[in-house]
Amino acid sequence: MDDIALIRQCKKGNRTAFEKIIKKYYLPITRFFYKHIQNTHVCEDLTHDVFVKFIENVHKYSPIKGIKFSSWLFRIAYNTYIDYLRKLPQQNEVAIDDETELCDNHNTADEVLLKIEYDELEKNLHLLPCRMRTLLILRYINGLSYAEIEKITGIEKAKIKSRIHYSLDKMKKLYRKEGGKPE
After folding, report:
1. Is the pLDDT of residue 167 over 80?
2. Which residues touch 135 (CB under 8 Å, ≥6 apart)?
3. Which of 59, 66, 122, 173 is the most buried (most CB within 10 A)?
4. Cβ(164)–Cβ(97) under 8 Å?
5. What tens digit of pLDDT does each residue of 89-119 get?
6. What are the structural domains of the chain?
7. The model's pTM
8. How far apart are CA 81 and CA 56, in angstroms?
9. How far is CA 103 from the centre of its chain?
10. How far apart are CA 176 and CA 183, in angstroms?
């Protein structure tokens, strides 16, 4: 049964449909949080919060609006994560606001990904500020398209691409500083 059929069943109160959705998306949502926070208990709490919000708001989801269910659910996770960050004491991070425009050179980004193996990417994500990390996690760990990330974050597609490029470039520099050998 696909997501749309399950959502229709959820809207009717079908407990089995809710369980199937939760089972399907529990790990990807938890992984999203873990790549940011790396605290299992906090990740589980945030994942729980996402699914409570899903249950409470499933009636608001409509595939007619052109948003895939997975994007809608990750938007809830993204907003939950942002709320979590707001509650933390302020940290000094490089801000990338909506006005920031960076170069859009996909070859460099692809080269960095080829040079830093997937395991190294995961291992070194903590070197980046959370806003940079979020886009990389959504794109390369969760495998979402730029269009899906745009719907989740509300950031324009062109800015997402340039921020991912900037994040990969920054990671490459930090990776070298930490003693890595990407070249």
Report:
1. yes
2. 149, 153, 160, 163, 164, 167
3. 122
4. no
5. 765 444 444 433 443 444 445 545 444 455 5
6. 3-87 (1.10.1740.10), 106-177 (1.10.10.10)
7. 0.62
8. 18
9. 22
10. 9
Helix (H, G, I), strand (E, B) or coil at 120: helix
Tokens of 91: 């940290």
Dihedral over Cα of 60, 84, 172, 94: its sign: positive
Q: Hey, what are 76's tokens?
A: 């809830």
- Find, among 18, 148, 152, the residue nearest to 76 by Cα: 152
Amino acid at 19: E
Token pair 């080269």: residue: 111
The string of DSSP codes covering 45-105 is HHHHHHHHHHHHHGGG--GGGS--HHHHHHHHHHHHHHHHHHHSPP-------TT------
Q: How far is CA 31 from the centre of its chain?
A: 9
**CA torsion, ordered 28, 31, 37, 39, to nearest 10 deg:** 120
